[in-house]
Each structure stands twice: as C-alpha cells, then as structure tokens.
Design goal:
The chain has a domain at 2-152. The protein has 216 residues and is an all-alpha fold. It has helices at 2-20, 33-50, 57-67, 72-79, 101-108, 116-127, 136-150, 154-162, 167-177, 188-191, 198-212. 60% of the residues lie in helices and 0% in strands. The chain is globular and about 45 Å long.
C-alpha cells in the first residue's frame, strides 16, 4: 500500500516539476499538468471505491482530499469546460476532466469521511469565485448546499468566511448560489443572520431580487 501511494504521488510531483519548469516533455510525461493530476485523483478514487469498507481507506481519502482543487480556477480546469456557459451547451468547448466529474465529486468527494468543517471550507473556497456550468460545477453547488445544512454551524461558517471577502466576491458567491435556480426562492436559513451579518444578507437579498426577473 505504501509503495502504491509513493508511486502515485511521485508520478504527480514529477509531472508538476517538469510542467512548472517548462522542461521538454519526455515520452512518459506526454500529458499536461492538469491531466497528470486527474490521473492521480482517478487512481485514488478507484482505490477509495474499491476499499470503501476498510478502515485503511481513510488515509487514501486524506490524500484525495488534499490533492482535490482548492480554487474554482483549478476546479474548472480539471472538471469544467473551457468556455463560459451562456445558455448554449455547444459554446462550452472541451473539458478534459468532465468525464471524471461524477465519480470524483458525487461518488468520492461527497462521501469522504473527513471533518465536515474542513470539507465545507474547501467548498466555500472553490465557490467564492465560481460561475455556473453544467455537470461538475452543478454537482459542486448542490453538494455545497447539502453540506451547509448537514454541518453543525454550517451557515455560521459560511458567513464568517464571506465576511473576510470583498463585496464583489460576496455578490459573485450569491449569484453562483442561486444560478439557474427556477423559481428563485430565498434560503430562509440565510435570513436568520440578517442582524449579525447585515451587509452580507443585504447583498444576498439584492441578488435574489435580480434573479427573480431572469428567465432561463
């Protein structure tokens, strides 16, 4: 098992070093950095699914979680599409990892036996700069909403996180939160924080109002 992880991580790091130093690609490293990372994540995902009932799988889950994207830029690069969604799927272009999205996000990431607060914080980091797309990004927003409700103090964690960001980022977050939701119905649990986080809830209310007039 240790040799397996050593091989996986070494392969990823070799590719990372080569790519980031613009070294000429050898035959055995013919993939770009994102593709290499996907291979590592996919190998770990297979191992987690295969050994889901074993105690030892927890170590694999930690490795998977730590390698999984921490930003929307990286998340989109791995699992999303090149273009921006404007209502036409054909404008999305290619996504190198779209085919892995369901397995990595729904089957594995959403079922990791890792501290809920830690998982929620990673989801928030990705979502703060996110823009809606079908498939992987849509899985992300649904999982975020589920995690908010299932995590003790989840909404407090979210508001505390948002309070550290600029108004433009907060607005983007709420736009993502309600993107392609029809009809748009304000999350009543958000409204409970109106006094403590007045400015954040004010931005939330404006986004909800704007989205009610949008027809998808």
């Amino acid at each position: 098992m240790i040799k397996y992880y050593f091989f996986i991580i070494t392969t990823y790091l070799m590719g990372f070093v080569l790519c980031n130093n613009n070294v000429s690609r050898y035959e055995f490293v013919s993939l770009d950095c994102d593709s290499l990372k996907l291979i590592v994540l996919d190998s770990l995902a297979d191992e987690i699914i295969k050994n889901s009932n074993l105690k030892s799988v927890e170590k694999t889950e930690i490795v998977f979680f730590n390698i999984f994207p921490d930003s929307f830029k990286e998340f989109k690069c791995l699992y999303g599409y090149e273009g921006e969604f404007n209502g036409l799927v054909e404008n999305l272009g290619d996504g190198i990892g779209a085919q892995y999205a369901e397995k990595h996000i729904i089957q594995v990431f959403s079922n990791l036996k890792i501290n809920s607060n830690t998982v929620l914080n990673k989801l928030l980091k990705i979502s703060i700069e996110a823009h809606w797309q079908p498939d992987a990004v849509n899985y992300l927003i649904h999982f975020l909403k589920e995690k908010l409700k299932s995590t003790s103090g989840g909404y407090e964690i979210m508001f505390s996180f948002l309070a550290k960001h600029e108004k433009s980022e907060i607005k983007n977050f709420w736009e993502f939160y309600y993107a392609y939701e029809e009809p748009v119905i304000a999350d009543t649990l958000v409204l409970k924080y109106k006094l403590k986080y007045a400015e954040i809830v004010k931005i939330h209310d404006l986004v909800v109002l704007e989205n009610k007039d949008i027809k998808h």
